[in-house]
Each structure stands twice: as C-alpha cells, then as structure tokens.
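Can you give me the bound-state structure? Components:
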Amino acid sequence: MSSRDAILARLRDNRPDPAAHPLPPVARLGNMDAGRARFEKSLALLGGQVLEPQAGESLSAAIARRFADAKIICSAVPDFEGTVRIEELGTPQKAAEVDVLVVRAPFGIAEMGSIFLSEAQLPTLNSAAHLTQHIVVILSEATLTANMHTAYIERPEFHTARYGVLMSGPSATADIQGVLVRGAQGVRTLSVWWEP
Amino acid sequence: MPSHIVVPAVHKLTPDVAKLFAEHYHTDPNDDDPQSLAWSQRLAARPVILAADAGMTGGNFVVAETGSFVVCTNEGNADLSATVPGLHIATLGIERLVPRMADLGVFVRMLSRSALGSPITQYTTHFRGPQDGGEMHVVLVDNGRSHRLGMEDFWTSLKCIRCGACMNTCPVYRRSGGLSYGAVYSGPIGAIIDPTFNERKYSTLPFASTMNGSCTNVCPVRINIHDQLYKWRRVLAEHHELPFVKREVMNMAGRLMGQPKLYRAAISGTETALGVLPRFALYNWLNPWGKNRELPHPVKQTFHSWYKQNRLKTKKKGEDA
Ligand code: SF4
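Here's the bound-state model for the whole set.
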C-alpha cells in the first residue's frame, strides 16, 4: 500500500460521521457597501495609496510626478505606453529591473482595499507584480465588490485563474521586534489609479 | 525553532537582529532601526530569489471544489518564491481543506484579524495550476493528522487555522515565551497537538496551564482548547507513570529559569510584542476574557534591567565615597 493509500484509508476509517456534519449553507455576511469611499479607507489602512490626478493630468504625467526617479516603467495594459511592455521582458527574473509596473485589475474588494491580479492581467509574467519596485493599479469603481464573501461567491476568476493574487497594499513585515515596516520583499508601494 | 507561529522570531530584539545581520549581511552592527534592517534583508534576499531554481511555499487553505490552495503572507516572499523560479513546490497540511471556493471568505476574514488585528494579509494568493512555462508540485502532509482525526476528544484541534490568537492571550505563553515549549507548535494549541506527535516528549505541556480558558475564548474556530488540555492530563496520567509526569512537570519552567539570559530575552520579547500588538487584537468581541479584565501591562523596564541601571550604580557610588 502506498503511503497515499494508507493515509486515505485512515482518513476514511477515522472521519467523523458525515451525517453529523452537513455542509452549511454558503455564508454571505457583513457590510454590503461596495463604494469607493470604503475601498479607499481600507486601502489606506493597509498602506496602499490612491494616485490622484492633479488638474486633470494623464496617468503618465501622474506617474512621472509621483515616481520622478523611475527609469523603467513597464506597461501591462494596452492604453498606456511606459518604457517597456510586459511581454518584452522575456524571463521572470527580468522584472527585477522594473521601477514601476502599470497594470489593470479586473476587480477590487471594498472591505479590504484589495485588488485582484492573475496571469490574464500580467501576460505570462506573474513575477512582474512582485519584483517591480512600485505598482500602479488601474481600477474601475464599477468593478468593486463589497467583501470577501461576495468576492468569492461572484467573481469567476477564482475558478478560472491558475495564479490569482489579492494584493492589499504593498508588501509589509512585522518580523523585526513587531515593528510594522511597509515595503518588505515585494512591491514597496501600491497605488490605485481610478479609471476616469 | 520558531517562538511563535505567526511571528517566529518575536523573541529576538532589534539589537539581536542587527548583530545577526552584521554577521551575515555585513551591515552596520549598531544600526538597529527595523526599517533599515528590513531594507538590508530585502537587498540580501533578492539575489537569492533571482538565482533560485525552485521555490517552496506552504499553504493556509486548500479548496476541494477547485483544487486550489491559498497562501496568506505579508512580506511577499511566498509570491516571489512561486513566480520567479520555474518550479514551485508547496507543502500543504491535509486538514486545511475547505469544501467550496465560496467558503473561503469566512476563513480569510478570520485569519489575519485573529493573528495580527489587520483585516487581511497583504497577499492572499490562490494557486490552481503552474504558471506558463513553469511547474507546480504539491506535497500533501499528513504527519499524524489522519491518526488524530480518529481521537474522539482531540480531533477538533485539526480545525486550527494557525492564527496564533491563543498564544497571544495565554498567560503562560506570554510569560514563558514560545521557545520554552521545545516544539514547533507552542502556546495552547501546541500544548494540545504536540503530544499527538510524541506523547512522552511533550507530556509536560498540557500541565503548564492555569485552566483560565482564555485560549478557548479567543479561538476563531472555537476549539475547546482548555477542555482538551484537561483531557490530555488524564490520558497522559493513564499512559505513563504519574511520578514521571510529576517529575517532568517543572522541566519547561526549569529550562527557562535555569538560563537567565534566555529568560530575560523571552520576557522582553513578550513585553515588546504586547506593546505592539494592537489592543484590537487582544481585546475584541472574540475575547470576552478581556472584557472585564485587563491583560498585564507591558512594562517599560523589567526589574532586572532597572536594578542593573539604578542599584548597581548607587552601590558603586556608595563604595567610592
Ligand atoms: S487553536 Fe484557535 S486561536 Fe489557536 S492558533 Fe489555532 S485557530 Fe488560532
């Protein structure tokens, strides 16, 4: 008997009576506010920022202002130029040279200030979302979902994406004496640009 | 050995980390600012990640419906390990299985707020297959879990989502620190699952409890931890000679008290974490124990360091005069 079969057999023998533990109905709990204000409040709590256009400036102008020292700006969206396209990077490691990645999220979660990205938004290079120094996420208010329950119940991406990450602000750590540091191993900042 | 399941190096103070980094990363040993230490760590880790042929992660949840697993982290190290090298290997405890994708909402919402008081981890990543041009392998880890499932009094400990809330609230853990348990899983949850790995080795752990039930009150998945602690005492008494248990009971405390340096590190580590962990994490509706009681205040200075600073000096001055 392989160890796999042995484990499965033991699980079958030992499991509590399934009749005593019926599957509960799917929970759809909590606040159902899917508004932009709630999203922005949660985003700020987790260290994310909103990139606000000044006097009607374009996304590229806002990026040039906010990331004045950035040399390599990588675009993963058709409607933004950047200095390099994500498809041109070639290898996952190459993304380490990128200063700013511009990407479009299919949806956000108001409760958590989270944005979702998968291989569909990062064509072939999932690493780009983490090796880049800063990430700018284009998000449409209309795609906001209220909370974790509505997200998992309603969004098809959780069933179709092979790699799907909910990013809630930039990377962070509290491993050194419990002090919160934003910008750990992954992106140092995460900014949301609202789709006009 | 980690001293905490969520913050594994919580017993290390910034000067300890500065010393360690100076040794291995050649940073300034006197720079103990967490911000710059974290930056040095980032700079040191990047080349390792970029050169790696494989990346390993764990997994917090596994979804039966889709065959997905979910990894919750803050640093981003798991996502880097999974997406930069071409090969991703994940080890998953078999008890972390939830039936449907729609059930995940409950668990993801509970995890980080019980662990650190934050609404969600910075990264919540769902893996359902390898990325383009890569490989993904999953190792399902039993390590006694299927056996524990058959233990009538103890199987519910398999519900644990490893949030660490029971450790943060436990008066024994907070005083003695995670290292004193001598096991990977410390705190109340460690005390009820460690004996399933090795009854004799961890026979003392269920006795190191005041039975205050604080752990049970904060546990987001409602494991009856303090009941299980009590039941383990009976099991252990039946399985072993009682004198053996009695003889060993003080071992844990003894190990710690016998090493003043370790004890002081444990105390100051625990006090610092207490000062930092948000009140919200320690006092919330999940913790009725904290409603009418105040957890011990993190003291600014331990008696030992106060004595060293004040009395020793005065004594010296007195001798001079
Ligand atoms: S036993 Fe409960 S409180 Fe303790 S780590 Fe597990 S889930 Fe959290």
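A couple of observations. Strands of chain B lie at 54-57, 61-63, 68-73, 87-93, 97-98, 123-127, 135-141. DSSP finds 16 helices and seven strands in chain B.
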